[in-house]
Specification:
The complex is a heterodimer of chains A (about 500) and B (about 260). Helices cover about 20% and strands about 35% of the residues of chain A. In chain A, strands 6, 7, 9, 11, 12, 14, 16, 17, 19, 21 and 23 form an eleven-stranded mixed β-sheet that branches. In chain A, strand 4 and strand 5 form a beta hairpin. Chain A has ten helices and 24 strands. The longest helix of chain A has 17 residues. Chain B has one domain: Rossmann fold (3-Layer(aba) Sandwich), CATH 3.40.50.300. In chain B, helix 3 packs across helix 4, helix 5 crosses helix 6 and helix 6 runs parallel beside helix 7. The longest helix of chain B is centred in the middle third of the chain and has 15 residues. Chain B is globular and about 55 Å long. Classes of the chains: A alpha/beta (about 500), B alpha/beta (about 260). Chains A and B meet through helix 8 and helix 9 of A and helix 3, strand 7 and helix 4 of B. Bound molecules: adenosine-5'-triphosphate and magnesium ion. The site of magnesium ion has 5 residues of chain B, from helix 2.
Chain lengths: ~500, ~260
């Protein structure tokens, strides 16, 4: 394996940035020694990442293919989304940052106590004995998976749940078969970038007929300053299996923007079901719109087998910019795709989010329920495409988009595209835009409920249909996130 | 000391109240005193300002008090936020209860009770304590307990909404209940249930202002006074028999007698 010595890594200690803003509870920075590649992107950096992770040649070659493709794109990001931001300097980003003590902890004791502390602050139960029953956690800190818990319990059932790096080494046949099979490296600008430089992520494989007994969870966190996070997640549900997967995200408060360009691929074989839930709470920037995460994410599932089902539920409250469209390719006959979303923007946040349902198989069904909440100067766009291919006899889609406006400086936009190439398709679309109603507010106040609380109750009610799709504890957390994100927006 | 003394005298003292909605003055110099234990019925033609009066008392922002004063248990009611009025014991049963999609009735009631209790320096109820309280009141209001699992008033029938208002009153246990046409749109059985709920609530320390168009409810809830509200003022006050007279003769004779112009 060729390894370039032109690039060396250095050890740095990250320090707390000077931003004082108490509203974002997750804004602390952790002092851990990190192994950081110099800023910038070139072929050597790609090789370095691959080498650092001890990857096989095929993986390096795939990365390089992606990198070379990315070069051809000439730093031309997609322009069609309703988002506005200054040009990103791709040479001003660290593409690799790993906590130093992490040389693959063999047990919980081997994990850097600073890290454990950080995760404790995040409310993530990293220590085995303290863990919430029924949640297996894969924690990705900056770009490296720190610890995967519950692995043994899962292994007994043949379930693989590990970091992507580990999967590349231990399960190359699965990774080679499915990586890029849903989101090819050439898919879009950010997916291409991710394919070249992804550093870690989560991998899950559920064998035939197995119902994953616990919820799998990955908690993502960006710590290192000026570092991008490019994780890559791959989940494969084999025939007749079921898995519910949770993903949570936070980042420290930083004055500069942080880039997050992840790729998630899901594959459901015959009669398999994947339920993927996200709470996205990356740092949204301050009240003036300074700082915050640029969240450019490609998430797509392939309902490959017959009667398979893929369901995305997302609660997006964080990030300065959110650009993501968790989608489903409904390839198997009778397969089902779902997208349930709450996207909240406040202050100067921008979200352009939605889904793409591509119906290929017969009798395929998709459901889209998107709730957008706009407050402050926030700008929220729902963008969705429902595509019925000629082969998709009797395809059905139901789409509902509701927007709620708080104040009069925010924006809400709905951009639904429909492309029907089979006359047997049946489509239904509903859309509403509303404001929090003064009479409703007064009704609640008249029962003793404070104005702010009344607002929160109404907005929470607006989201309830989505929250109920989340596992219970996640739903509670989503409600809580909503409350925190809305603080000071009403009145 | 002073306050306590007043408290035992008047729950509500309204003096020369003027209320405007937008450009229009709706309440034009209204006086009313309600003592503990009393039930006051307010009747009057459509658009005479009955709802305006009770909503202004509850603090609805669009209803602007331009003149006059309102003492509630000796306190300046008009200086309080709507939620504070509620916590102090002012309850309004709405003529048109609002629907709140996604807000579970149970959750809402629990939050309301906790807000009121916290205000009174009582500790919040545990789920079990609250459920016990709720079950007891549900029996009185004869409401299907399944309704409390649904979104507040969403898809409730007209009668269910009205009974739900009574349920809320019973659960929150206010001191002053303003009931705005809680008897409208009810079938005979439901009317009896609502009346029964109000009578359960009625007591020596409670005060009730009951807005209605029909004397029938007064067969079940005997009022101490019946007032006629017209053109933003109370133009006549009598006892139970006044309601019967109104039913028989309508409002024209009062209009003539009190010199109120026909619109
Ligand atoms: N929010 C409002 N905006 C404009 N006008 C209003 C508003 N609320 C009340 N009004 C007007 O004030 C007048 C009194 O209305 P109010 O609802 O108090 O009457 P009411 O006596 O309760 O009538 P009803 O018996 O029909 O319930 C009416 O002319 C009504 O149109
Ligand atoms: Mg009225």
């Amino acid at each position: 394996m060729t390894q370039s010595n032109a690039v060396t890594t250095k050890k740095v200690i990250s320090r707390t940035s000077g931003i004082q803003e108490s509203d974002y509870r997750w804004g602390f920075v952790t002092d851990v020694e990190a192994d950081v590649a110099p800023k910038g992107l070139n072929e050597d950096i790609v090789r370095l990442i691959s080498h650092k992770k001890g990857e096989p040649q095929w993986m390096l070659e795939w990365r390089l293919k992606a990198y070379r493709h990315w070069l051809k794109l000439n730093a031309e990001e997609p322009k069609w989304a309703n988002i506005h931001y200054p040009a990103i300097d791709y040479q001003d980003i660290h593409y690799y940052s790993a906590p130093v003590s992490k040389a693959g902890p063999q047990s919980m004791d081997a994990v850097d106590p600073e890290l454990v502390e950080a995760f404790n602050k995040l409310g993530i139960p990293l220590q085995e004995q303290k863990r919430l029953a029924g949640v297996a956690v894969d924690a990705v800190f900056d770009s490296v998976s720190v610890a995967t818990t519950y692995q043994e319990t899962l292994e007994k059932q043949g379930i693989i749940f590990c970091s992507m790096s580990e999967a590349i080494k231990k399960h190359p046949e699965l990774v080679r078969k499915y990586l890029g099979s849903v989101v090819p490296y050439s898919d879009n600008f950010f997916a291409t970038l991710n394919s070249a430089v992804f550093s870690d992520g989560s991998f899950a494989y559920i064998p035939p007929g197995v119902r994953c007994p616990i919820e799998l969870m990955t908690y993502f966190r960006i710590n290192q300053a000026d570092s991008g996070q490019f994780e890559r997640t791959l989940i494969i549900a084999d025939k007749g299996s079921y898995v519910s997967y949770l993903e949570g995200c936070t980042a420290p408060m930083r004055k500069s923007h942080q880039l997050h360009a992840a790729v998630v691929e899901l594959i459901a074989l015959d009669n398999a079901e994947i339920k993927y839930s996200t709470l996205q709470n990356w740092y949204p920037g301050d009240k003036e719109g300074k700082g915050g995460v640029y969240n450019f994410v490609t998430k797509r599932g392939k309902a490959l087998g017959k009667s398979s089902k893929i369901s995305w539920t997302q609660v997006e409250t964080g990030s300065a910019i959110t650009w993501k469209y968790p989608s489903v390719i409904l390839q198997g006959d009778n397969s089902v795709g779902e997208f349930y979303s709450v996207a909240l923007v406040n202050h100067y946040q921008q979200a352009d989010t939605g889904t793409k349902m591509t119906h290929i198989g017969k009798n395929t069904r998709s459901t889209i329920v998107a709730k957008g909440i706009s407050a402050g100067h926030g700008n929220n766009t729902y963008r969705g495409l429902v595509k019925i291919m000629p082969s998709a006899d009797n395809a059905r889609n139901f789409t509902q988009c509701d927007s709620l406006l708080i104040g009069d400086k925010c924006g809400a936009h709905t951009v639904p595209y429909i492309e029907v190439r089979n006359p047997t398709a049946s489509m239904a679309h509903e859309a509403t835009t509303s404001k929090v109603n003064d009479d409703q507010l007064f009704y609640l106040q008249q029962r003793g409920i404070a104005f702010d609380e009344a607002n929160y109750m109404i907005i929470n009610g607006f989201c309830r249909g989505i929250f109920k799709e989340l596992p219970f504890e996640f739903a509670m957390e989503a409600s809580q996130l909503l409350r925190v994100s809305l603080e000071g927006t009403v009145g | 000391m002073n306050k306590v003394q007043e408290r035992s005298q008047e729950v509500l003292a309204i003096r020369n109240l003027h209320v405007s909605v937008g450009e229009a003055e709706i309440i034009k110099g209204l006086n009313l005193t309600v003592n503990p234990g009393e039930v006051h019925a307010i009747m009057g033609p459509n658009g005479s300002g009955k709802s305006t009066l009770v909503n202004a008392l509850a603090g609805k922002p669009q209803y602007v008090v331009t003149k006059g004063e309102v003492l509630y248990e000796g306190m300046n009611l008009l200086a309080m936020l709507p939620e504070v009025r509620a916590r102090e014991g002012v309850f309004l049963a709405f003529q048109y209860p609002l629907e709140l999609p996604g807000v579970r009735t149970w959750q809402f009631l629990k939050s309301a009770v906790d807000a009121v209790r916290t205000h009174r320096s009582l500790k919040e109820l545990s789920v079990r304590e609250f459920d016990r309280l709720l079950t007891e009141k549900i029996k009185i209001a004869e409401i299907d307990s399944e309704l409390t699992k649904r979104s507040l008033n969403e898809g409730f029938s007209g009668g269910e909404k009205k009974r739900n208002e009574i349920l809320q009153m019973l659960v929150l246990d206010p001191k002053l209940a303003l009931l705005d046409e809680t008897d409208s749109g009810l079938d005979i059985d439901a009317l009896k249930i609502v009346a029964q709920g109000v009578n359960q609530f009625r007591g020596p320390s409670k005060a009730i202002v009951l807005v209605t168009h029909y004397q029938r409810i007064l067969n079940y809830i005997t009022p101490d006074y019946v007032h006629v509200l017209m053109e933003g003022r109370i133009v006549k006050t009598g006892g139970r028999e006044l309601a019967l007279e109104l039913e028989e003769k309508g409002y024209d004779w009062i209009r003539e007698a009190s010199g109120v112009a026909r619109e």
